[in-house]
Specification:
The protein is mainly alpha-helical and about 270 residues long. The protein has ten helices and no strands. The protein is about 75% helix and about 0% strand.
C-alpha cells in the first residue's frame, strides 16, 4: 500500500485585500477621480502675479494684529464674550433637552414605526440648513440680538445631538437590555438601567463638544445680527481695530481649548 503526500504551499507574508476587489472597477474609479480632480483644478483661475502682489498687503494686515489689545476701551469686547458664552450654554441645554426625547424616538430598536419616522423627520429638518442660514431666518423673524442666535443654535443642536443619540442607542449591546427587560422592568426603568449607562459617557463628551461648537458658531452668526462676540468682532474689523480683533480671537481660542480639556476630564470621570 503506497501513500502519496502532497505539499501545500502557504504565502509567506500577509497582504491586505483591496477595498474594491474587481481590478477593472478599482482602476476605473482611480482614473476617473484623477481626471475629475485635474479638470476641477483647471477651472480655478489662479493669478500668480496677483498673489505675489497681495503678499506684502497680507503681511501688513497680520502686523496690525500685534500686539493684541485687551484694554476694551469701549467696554463691548467682554460684554460680547459673556453674551456668546451665555447664548452657547442656554442653547446647548435647551437643544439637548429637546434632543433626548427626539433621539429616543428616532432609535429603530426603541420606537414604533410612526414615531421613528416622525422623529427622523424632525432630525432631518433641523439638519437641513447650517446655523448661519438659520440665524438669518431667525433675525428676520425676531429681529437683531442674542435671541435670534439662541434659536439658530438650539435648532442646530437638536439635529446634531438627536441624530448621534439615536445612532448610539441603535448600536447598544442587546445583552444588557434583554437582561434588564427579563427582570420585569417597565419602559422607563429599562431606559434608565439598560440604555442610559451604555450611551451616557459618549453623550457627556458630545454635550461639551456641542457647547464648543455653539460658542464658535456664535462668533459666525453674530456677523449676520445674531448677537454675541461675532457682532463685536465684525465691528472691530469695520473700525480697523485689528489689535482688538486679535484679542477677541485669542479669547475664543482659549475658551475652546478650556472646553476641550473639560470634555476629556468629564469623559474619564463618568467612565
Amino acid at each position: 500500500m503506497s501513500t502519496s503526500s502532497q505539499t501545500v504551499s502557504y504565502p509567506s507574508s500577509w497582504q491586505k485585500p483591496p477595498f474594491i476587489e474587481n481590478p477593472l472597477l478599482r482602476w476605473g474609479l482611480i482614473v476617473g477621480a484623477v481626471i475629475y480632480l485635474t479638470a476641477a483644478l483647471g477651472t480655478m483661475e489662479i493669478d500668480i502675479d496677483r498673489v505675489m502682489e497681495g503678499l506684502p498687503r497680507g503681511k501688513r494686515f497680520l502686523d496690525a494684529f500685534f500686539p493684541p489689545n485687551f484694554a476694551d476701551n469701549r467696554g463691548v469686547m467682554w460684554e460680547g464674550i459673556l453674551e456668546s458664552i451665555w447664548m452657547a450654554i442656554i442653547s446647548t441645554v435647551v437643544g439637548i433637552a429637546i434632543s433626548v426625547p427626539v433621539g429616543l424616538g428616532a432609535a429603530k430598536n426603541l420606537a414604533r414605526l410612526w414615531v421613528y419616522l416622525a422623529c427622523r423627520s424632525i432630525i432631518a429638518g433641523s439638519r437641513t440648513f447650517p446655523e448661519i442660514i438659520l440665524a438669518i431666518f431667525a433675525v428676520k423673524l425676531f429681529g437683531f440680538g442674542p435671541f435670534a442666535g439662541f434659536i439658530a443654535l438650539s435648532l442646530g443642536t437638536i439635529g446634531f445631538f438627536a441624530k448621534l443619540l439615536a445612532e448610539d442607542i441603535e448600536n447598544i449591546s442587546p445583552v444588557q437590555a434583554e437582561a434588564i427587560r427579563a427582570t420585569g422592568a417597565n419602559w422607563f426603568q429599562w431606559i434608565n438601567y439598560a440604555i442610559q449607562p451604555q450611551v451616557m459617557p459618549r453623550m457627556i463628551g458630545l454635550s461639551v463638544y456641542r457647547l464648543d461648537i455653539n460658542f464658535r458658531e456664535s462668533a459666525v452668526i453674530g456677523i449676520v445680527g445674531g448677537g454675541g462676540i461675532g457682532a463685536t468682532l465684525n465691528t472691530a474689523f469695520s473700525r480697523y481695530e485689528f489689535d482688538t480683533a486679535a484679542a477677541i480671537l485669542i479669547i475664543i481660542i482659549a475658551i475652546v481649548m478650556t472646553l476641550e480639556f473639560c470634555s476629556g476630564f468629564l469623559r474619564k470621570w463618568v467612565q
